[in-house]
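Section 3.1: Structural characterization of target chains.
Under the original work plan, the team committed to producing a structural model for every single-chain target entering the pipeline before any wet-lab resources were allocated. The record below documents one such target. The sequence was received from the expression subgroup and is listed exactly as submitted; it comprises 323 residues.
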Amino acid sequence: MLTGRRNFLKLTAGLVTSASLAPRISLAQPAVKIGTAVLADYGLAGPVIIAAEKGFFKEQGVNAEFLPFRGGPDLLKAVMVGEVLVGVTGSTDIIQFREAGSPIKMVATHGEGNNFVIVTAPDGPSMSELKGKAIGVTRPGSASWILTRMAVKAQGWDPDRDVKILGLGGLDAQLAALTRKEIAAFIWGDYGGVSVAQGRTKVIFKVETITPKWISFIEYSSEDQIKKNPEQVRGSIRAMFQAFKFMKANPEESARITSAKLGWSPDVVLAVHKGWLPIAPTDGRIDVEALRVMQDTLLESGTIKKRLPLDEHYTTEFTPVRL
């Protein structure tokens, strides 16, 4: 499975967008897209929804549309062909995709720490009882897949033999599979987010216990877009950090605005918001030491095979963000 994943990444690494966006756009011009790896994660999607609904993208000269995907690999493909200007995803993607040859760079930190957890049904098994069972992730090779393998190894198990790790896509698919007992558990961000807040799941493992130095979410763009359209990239980042500031100051209104897009009730969104606050970024600054720890971890796990210089993974051109 990993071999197939690496072949996919090498293929997409060769794709170069031919579209050229003007440094500043008017509302009459076609919109650019800001993509997230999934929809049903408040920490990923919430700031993009707020930035669009409150007009922060327009304030920054960017006519942006929000486009959620079904996992980091699908988002990467869209970024590489120029369909998406800035992608927001799990942090391990930048290390894995760069190692496979994709010309992308991290442009800002979108979530600090590590808010991924493994959840099960309210009457489901404990983490120690998952051996021999199936665990859901978004996509093979995604951040959720990597972290699940790490969590399984932390139990002393072989992730290829002792459990089944299934790529199922978004949250609805995970919950449906859990209800049908096709999986015993699945991994999600937001510390379990909406499914825990609604009482549909319970947390049985916090990934932060095995990743004390980590980055939850990143914003990234292709090297081509960074070179050709830096002001578009900069404006998109600034708009999202306006959204972060707004969300911290206005939790109730943020819950009301995002609830419709997420498909959750405002009170559930507000509960998820409170859990999100500890990882909310301040100015997008990139923690290079955390990237180093993540790279070491991926090398040790066999997820990547070679160590690239860390400065190839990011640019500091757009951070710290000063509003």
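Residues 230-249 form the longest helix (20 residues).
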